[in-house]
Design brief:
Length: 975
C-alpha cells in the first residue's frame, strides 16, 4: 500500500463523502452511520472508496484488482468476500435496493440512485508539503504490497499520536511493526512538517544514534555535536520522527528521544522495537499477530478469507501464481499453515512464497522444518527479514547469556507453561527463582515470550516460529537431554496429579490438567522414544496413557505401547503393557478378534505369574470385547471359568469382585434376546457398585462398570416401550461420562443420539451433536461420525434427500465404517430411510444382507425389528405372507420383552390384513400388547412416554405408506 492508498483508492481528495445515513472520512479511514463509528475491514473500506469515486461507472474485476488490490489480477472469491463484507456493513439504503450493484458479467457499481455529497465539493489535488530539508535517508519508504488486517492498529496508533508525543510500537520480529508504522506515518505525511524516517538497524554502535538521526534530517556530514544540531533543527518543527528498529540501541535511543522532546515541544516521535525503550513519557503499543481461525475444520474458502492471515497468505501466493484460487477443499490446510505460523506476517509471506515450488499441501507437510523451508530470500527486504532464521538471529544476539539459556530451555514446552513449570524444567539448581522471574519478564518485554492471563490463570507461551528457532539453538547434545529429562519429570508429575484428581472424583479439575498437559505429554513421549530412553518412555506411557485416553487419543496410546512391547523383556511390565494395549485397541479399533487375543494372552500370563488383580482386569476385558464382537456366550463362559476358580484361599480382591464379573458377563445376555436377565444384571451393577470405588482408566477396569451398563439399559427400556426412561438413562450415561472424551463419544453414538432420534426429540439430538463437534475438532474420524449423525438428523427432521445420499455413502462407501457387527443401528437407519423415501429395491437388498448376518450371529438384538421390516416390504405383493411374517416378529419380540417392536408389528399387521378375522386378531393382539406397555409404568413420566410412543407409531405408519405408495408407482409404470 502506498501513501496515497492510505487515503483510499485513487487518493480521494474529499474531506468526507456522505450517502444515505453514512459518512466516510477517506483521510482518517473512518465510516460512520448516524454519527457512530462503524467497524469496517481495510479491503471493504478500500472497495467502498473505489466505488464512491467511480459512482455510476461499472468497475470490472481487473479495475477492482488495480484500484483496490494494486495488482493486475485478483481471484473471484476474494472480490466476493470483500463485496459481501461491504454490503453487510452498509446494509440497505433507506429507500430500498442495494448500495453496491452487481452487473452480471461486467462488474460492480455504486448505485447512481443514491445521492452523494462531498466536501469540499470540487477540491483540487493538494500536493503534500515537502519535509523540512530531509536527507535521502529520512524519506519515508513506500510500501510495495497491500497491508492486511492492520486497519484497527493503524487507527489506534493514529489516535495515540494525536494526544501522545512518544509512541513505541512493540512486537516480535517479522510481525509487521515497520509496515504498520509507515502506514500510520503516511497518513501524516501531508500534514504539519511531514515525516522523517530513520532506520537504526544498520548501526551497531549506540553512540552513532544522534548522528544517524541528524543525517536523516539533512546534515551534510557528521555534525560536531549531533545533539545540538537536532535541538536547533527541530526546535520549531511539527515533525513526526519515525525511528525504526530501536531494540539494539534502546538505551541511547531513549536518551536522545528525551532530549529531542524537551528541546522541540511540537515534535512527535514514533519508534518500532522488539522491546520498550524505557524512556520517560513513552507510551507502548503492543502489536499482535494477524487474526487466524482457531480451527479450520468446516470453514469455507469465503469464511477463511475473512481472517487477515489467510487473506495475506492468498495474496502472496497469487503474487507468484496469479491463477491460484483458494478453494473450500484447500481452506482448512491454509488455516492450519497460518495457525502454526501464529499469524506472524513475515513467516506467512515466506511460506506463501514457497507454494509455487511445493504446493499448499506440500507446505503443510514441510512446515515443521520452518527455518529451512522459509529461507526464500526476498532481495528487496532488509537483510534480517530475508529469511526467518535471520530475523530471529537478530533478536537472539541481542539477549544476555542468561536470557539465551532460558529461552532455549523453555522451548521444550510444547505450548503453554507456568512459572512453576519453568522453575522445574528450565532453571538450573544454582539459579535462584527470582532470577528466573526477572529473566522471563525480560523475554516478555522483548516480545520473545507471550504472556496470557485468562480464566485458566497466568500462563506463557512461545510463538511456534520462536520455539522452533530456540529448539535448534538448544541442539541435541547433553544440554538438550538434561532439559528433556527435566521436562519428562514435569510431565510425569502433572499426570500423577491428574490421577489424583480423578480418584477424588474431581473430573473438572482432572480434565483441565489433561488438556493443559496433552501437548507436553506427547512431546515428552516422542523425545524419550527417539532417544531410546525406554525406562523413561515406559514411565511416561504408564502415567500419560490414561490422560491421552481421556482426551480421545487411545489409538495414539496404542502406538506408543506397541513400540515399548518391541523392547520390553520384564514379564510383569509386559503384562501391564498388554492389558493397556488391549484397552487402547478396544477404544480405537474395530479389531475385536485381535483385542480378544491380546487380552487372552494377558490373562494366561497373569495366571502364570499368580497375579490375581491382572487376571481380573484381563478377564473383564475379554468379557467386554467378546460382547462388542457379538460373542455373548464367550463372555458368559469366560466369567464362569474365572469365578469357578475363586475359593477361600483366593485373593480377597477376586472374591469381592466375583459378583461384579458375573454381572458384567450378564450384560451380554441382551444379545441372546434375554432382556430381562440383562436388565437385572445392569440394575445390580448400578445398585451395588459403590460410587466411591468408581474406576479410572489406570485401575482394574477400563471404564466405570456402571457406564458400560447404562447404554444397554437405555436400549432395553426403548425396545420395551419405556421410551421416556430410555431418554433419561442415555442422558445419565452422558452426564456420568464427565470429561472423558471416548466415553462421551461412545455413549452418544451407541445410545443417547439413537434414542433421541428414535423418539423424535430433535432438540436433544442437536445438543448431543454440538457436544461432539466441540470435542472432536482434531479427530477426522470422529468428525466424520459427527457429520453422519447430522445427516441422520436432517433425514428424519427435514426429509433431506441430500443428507440421505451423504449418509448412504458414509455407510456403504467408507472402509472405516467396520460393517454390521458394531454399527447395526446405522444400517437399520439406512434401511428405514430407504423405505421412507420409497426406495424399496435398495431397502430389500440391504435387508437381505442384514437378515443373513443376524441368522449366522449369536446376537438377536435387532432380529424381531428386522423381521417386521421384512414383512412391511413383503406386503407390497403378498399381504397374506406378510401377515404371517408380522406374527413371527410379534412372537419373537414378546418373548424378548420388546413390546415396542411387537406393538408396531401388530398395528402394521392389522393395516394389511386381507380379511375381517385377521384384522380382529391383529387388533386384539395390539390392544393386549399396548396394555402391557402401559402397565410397565415408566419411571420418567407416563404422560411423556405415551406421547413418545404415539410419535414413533405415527412415523412407522408413514414409512409403511411410503413403501406401499412406491409399489403402486412401480405398478403404474409397468402398466
Amino acid at each position: 500500500m502506498t501513501t496515497s492508498d492510505m487515503d483510499g483508492p485513487k487518493g480521494s481528495s474529499a474531506d468526507w463523502i456522505a450517502f444515505g445515513d453514512h459518512v466516510v472520512f477517506p483521510t482518517d479511514r473512518i465510516l460512520k452511520r448516524d454519527g457512530r463509528t462503524v467497524q469496517i475491514g481495510d479491503k471493504a473500506l478500500d472497495l467502498l472508496l473505489a466505488l464512491l469515486n467511480a459512482q455510476g461507472e461499472i468497475l470490472s474485476k481487473s479495475d477492482l484488482a488495480e484500484r483496490v488490490w494494486q495488482r493486475p489480477y485478483i481471484e473471484d472469491a476474494t472480490i466476493r468476500v470483500a463485496i459481501g463484507s461491504l454490503r453487510k456493513v452498509l446494509g440497505a439504503p433507506p429507500d430500498g435496493g442495494e448500495y453496491v450493484i452487481n452487473v452480471v458479467g461486467r462488474g460492480y457499481s455504486f448505485s447512481s440512485a443514491v445521492p452523494l455529497e462531498r466536501w469540499p465539493a470540487h477540491s483540487a489535488e493538494v500536493p503534500s508539503r515537502p519535509p523540512i530539508g530531509l536527507g535521502a535517508l529520512g524519506r519515508l519508504p513506500p510500501l510495495l504490497t497491500p497491508v492486511f488486517g492492520r486497519r484497527r492498529d493503524i487507527q489506534a496508533i493514529g489516535d495515540l499520536l494525536a494526544t501522545r508525543r512518544f509512541i513505541t510500537v512493540v512486537g516480535a520480529g517479522g510481525i509487521g511493526k515497520t509496515t504498520v508504522a509507515i502506514s500510520c506515518a503516511s497518513l501524516r505525511n501531508a500534514a504539519e512538517d511531514g515525516v522523517c524516517f530513520v532506520d537504526l538497524a544498520p548501526i551497531r554502535d549506540p553512540a552513532l544514534v544522534p548522528a544517524r538521526i541528524a543525517m536523516a534530517l539533512g546534515a551534510e556530514q557528521a555534525a560536531a555535536d549531533p545533539g545540538a544540531f537536532l535541538s536547533d533543527r527541530l526546535a520549531h518543527s511539527r515533525l513526526l520522527l519515525l525511528l525504526d528498529n530501536g531494540e539494539h540501541v534502546a538505551g541511547t535511543a531513549a536518551s536522545v528521544i528525551e532530549d529531542i522532546l524537551n528541546a522541540a515541544p511540537r515534535v512527535t516521535v514514533m519508534v518500532t522495537s522488539r522491546e520498550p525503550l524505557g524512556a520517560e513519557g513513552e507510551t507502548i503499543y503492543r502489536l499482535n499477530p494477524l487474526s487466524v481461525p482457531q480451527e479450520g475444520y468446516g470453514l469455507s474458502a469465503e469464511q477463511a478469507l475473512s481472517y487477515d492471515a489467510i487473506e495475506l497468505f492468498v495474496d502472496r501466493v497469487q503474487a507468484g501464481s496469479p491463477d491460484f484460487t483458494l478453494t473450500d477443499a484447500l481452506a482448512p490446510t491454509v488455516v492450519d499453515i497460518c495457525r502454526r505460523l501464529d499469524g506472524v506476517a513475515l513467516a506467512i509471506r515466506l511460506a506463501a512464497g514457497r507454494v509455487p515450488a511445493f504446493g499448499v499441501k506440500g507446505i503443510a507437510t514441510l512446515i515443521e522444518d520452518k527455518f529451512r523451508l522459509l529461507s526464500q530470500s526476498a532481495r528487496a527486504a532488509l537483510p534480517r527479514h530475508q529469511t526467518l532464521e535471520a530475523t530471529f538471529d537478530w533478536s537472539f544476539e541481542l539477549l544476555t547469556p542468561t536470557e539465551q539459556a532460558l529461552l532455549t530451555r523453555i522451548a521444550v514446552f510444547a505450548h503453554f507453561f507456568t512459572l512453576d513449570a519453568v522453575q522445574q524444567v528450565a532453571a538450573h539448581e544454582e539459579e535462584a527463582l527470582d532470577l528466573v522471574l526477572v529473566t522471563i519478564g525480560d523475554l516478555v518485554a522483548k516480545s520473545l515470550v507471550v504472556f496470557i492471563e485468562d480464566e485458566d490463570g497466568a500462563r506463557y507461551r512461545l510463538l511456534e516460529t520462536v520455539r522452533g528457532f530456540a529448539l535448534a539453538r538448544l541442539g541435541n547434545g547433553e544440554e538438550r537431554r538434561a532439559t528433556a529429562r527435566l521436562h519428562a519429570s514435569y510431565v510425569i508429575s502433572r499426570c500423577e496429579r491428574y490421577q489424583t484428581e480423578k480418584i477424588k472424583s474431581r473430573d473438572r479439575h482432572a480434565a483441565a490438567i489433561a488438556r493443559s498437559t496433552l501437548d507436553d505429554a506427547r512431546s515428552a513421549l516422542q523425545w524419550s522414544v527417539e532417544d531410546a530412553d525406554w525406562e523413561l518412555a515406559s514411565a511416561l506411557v504408564r502415567v500419560a496413557g490414561p490422560l491421552l485416553t481421556q482426551l480421545g487419543y487411545a489409538k495414539e496410546v496404542g502406538t506408543w505401547i506397541e513400540r515399548l512391547l518391541d523392547v520390553e523383556t520384564d514379564l510383569r511390565k509386559r503384562l501391564d503393557l498388554m492389558i493397556s494395549l488391549g484397552g487402547a485397541l478396544w477404544l480405537s479399533s474395530p479389531e475385536d478378534v485381535t483385542t480378544i487375543k491380546i487380552y487372552g494372552d494377558a490373562y494366561a500370563l497373569a495366571r502364570d505369574l499368580g497375579d490375581v488383580s491382572a487376571q481380573l482386569r484381563a478377564a473383564w476385558s475379554v468379557i467386554m470385547t467378546s460382547c462388542s464382537a457379538r460373542r455373548p456366550r464367550e463372555a458368559i463362559d469366560a466369567a464362569a471359568q474365572l469365578t469357578e476358580g475363586f475359593d477361600a484361599s483366593t485373593d480377597g480382591e477376586a472374591v469381592n469382585n466375583e459378583g461384579l464379573i458375573r454381572a458384567l458377563a450378564g450384560v451380554s445376555r441382551h444379545l441372546l434376546g434375554d432382556y430381562a436377565a440383562c436388565e437385572r444384571n445392569i440394575r445390580w451393577l448400578l445398585h451395588h457398585y459403590p460410587a466411591e470405588s468408581r474406576v479410572i482408566e489406570s485401575g482394574p477396569y477400563l471404564y466405570d462398570p456402571r457406564q458400560i451398563g447404562r447404554p444397554f439399559l437405555s436400549w432395553i427400556e426403548w425396545f420395551s416401550g419405556r421410551m421416556s426412561d430410555a431418554a433419561a438413562t442415555s442422558s445419565l450415561a452422558i452426564a456420568g461420562s464427565g470429561d472423558n472424551v471416548p466415553s462421551i463419544f461412545n455413549n452418544t453414538i451407541r445410545a443417547a443420539f439413537p434414542v433421541a432420534v428414535g423418539s423424535r426429540r430433535w432438540a436433544a439430538a442437536s445438543q448431543y451433536l454440538e457436544t461432539l463437534r466441540r470435542l472432536c475438532t482434531d479427530r477426522p474420524d470422529w468428525r466424520a461420525w459427527t457429520n453422519a449423525l447430522q445427516d441422520i438428523l436432517s433425514i428424519h427432521r427435514d426429509r433431506s434427500t441430500d443428507a440421505l445420499a451423504r449418509f448412504e455413502e458414509f455407510v456403504t462407501g467408507r472402509e472405516p465404517f467396520h460393517g454390521f457387527k458394531r454399527q447395526t443401528w446405522c444400517y437399520v437407519q439406512l434401511l428405514e430411510n430407504y423405505m421412507s423415501f420409497g426406495r424399496v429395491e435398495s431397502a430389500q437388498s440391504l435387508l437381505n444382507e442384514l437378515l443373513t448376518f443376524i441368522e449366522r450371529e449369536e446376537g438377536n438384538w435387532w432380529r424381531s425389528h428386522l423381521i417386521a421390516l421384512d414383512a412391511t416390504l413383503l406386503a407390497r405383493y403378498d399381504p397374506r405372507a406378510a401377515f404371517h411374517r408380522y406374527q413371527e416378529a410379534i412372537a419373537l419380540a414378546e418373548a424378548e420383552g420388546s413390546l415396542l417392536v411387537a406393538l408396531k408389528a401388530a398395528l402394521a399387521a392389522r393395516a394389511i390384513a386381507v380379511d375381517h378375522a385377521a384384522r380382529v386378531e391383529a387388533r386384539a393382539i395390539a390392544e393386549a400388547i399396548y396394555q402391557k406397555l402401559i402397565e410397565s409404568a415408566p419411571a420418567a413420566g407416563e404422560r411423556e412416554n405415551r406421547a413418545l410412543v404415539r410419535s414413533v407409531l405415527l412415523a412407522d405408519r408413514r414409512m409403511q405408506r411410503a413403501v406401499l405408495t412406491a409399489m403402486e408407482t412401480d405398478e403404474r409404470a409397468v402398466a
